[in-house]
Amino acid sequence: MQTLHRILVTLPALLAFGCLPPKGDLGQYTATDGEETGDATTGDDTTTADAGTTVETGNPDDTGPVATATSSDDTGPIGTATSSGDSDTGPDEPPACDGPGEPTWESATFSFEPALVGEGFAADCEVSDIETHPHGADVALACGEQLVQLRLELDGPLTEFAVGDALAFDYRMVQSFGQSEWFTVRRPAPDGTLLLGGVLGETLTPPNAEQFFAPLSMTRQEGVCPTVIDCDNMSETIGVEFTHGDETALVLALHSLVIGESAPYRVGASIARKHYDEAQDGQGGFCQSFDIPEYYYGLMIHHLGE
Question: Alpha-carbon distance 188 to 198, whole Å?
Fold first, then answer.
């Protein structure tokens, strides 16, 4: 009877120690003990994440963390696997490869009064004011009842037009991952000479407007800057080939060139990049980034005179 009594006393104790509940939340990835790294979840070899999130998935045989995730509220285009969260800075550009031409980092931003309704505006305008600053000029256009303000970041002085000049202004805008913009400033019809133009967006020309920058045309050129794509760099510098008559010029990111003899233009690319949405991490895993445009450009075109 003593042996039976000992078994009955020992069995509940063994059950109590052998059925302790598991520690931690097994449904969340963690990078360090007790810290959540994002909204990434996994199950049965699949990985999902909210849009705008970069996920790095490690080798399941590793003893360390199997995943890390960083998230961004930035809905605009970005050019690396993680974002600073500042939608006004535009995409981060990978280092430019060596190429001919002068360095450049030009841009144009716009404001309209009253605010635009729709995705574009085109009108005959008059230059009502030009205010120069150390890095460019602010240009005011009076287009009937519409006032347009251009803030130009330039490599040199603005010489294409002056206060009092009549101009034809054309602006297009499309919302996608972010906001893509294209603009031209021309002499009024019937002349129509392109004086100034620019792109900040996902495509070289607006939708259904391949001749928007005539007499110049542009095509994308990939493979001109060999780049190792991995989780530390998911962007590749590309080139833009400009054609003017029988002449062509390949412009790489952060460079500018002059094309054309009888009617020369200076063409520059402050941004020209291709983004990869998935890359290997070198340890048997991979990383992904979402809601980033595959291509992004920042271009400026200047007419240099006859």
Answer: 18
Amino acid identity for residue 166 in this structure: A
**What does the domain layout of the chain look like in residue ranges?**
102-303
Q: What are residue 280's DSSP bridge partners?
A: 286
pLDDT digits (tens, 9 = 90+) for 206-224: 999 999 999 999 999 999 9
What are 47-90's pLDDT values in tens digits? 333 333 333 444 434 443 333 333 333 333 333 233 333 334 44
The three-state DSSP-derived secondary structure of 196-230 is: EEEEEECCCCCCCCCCCCCCEEEEEECCCCCCCCE
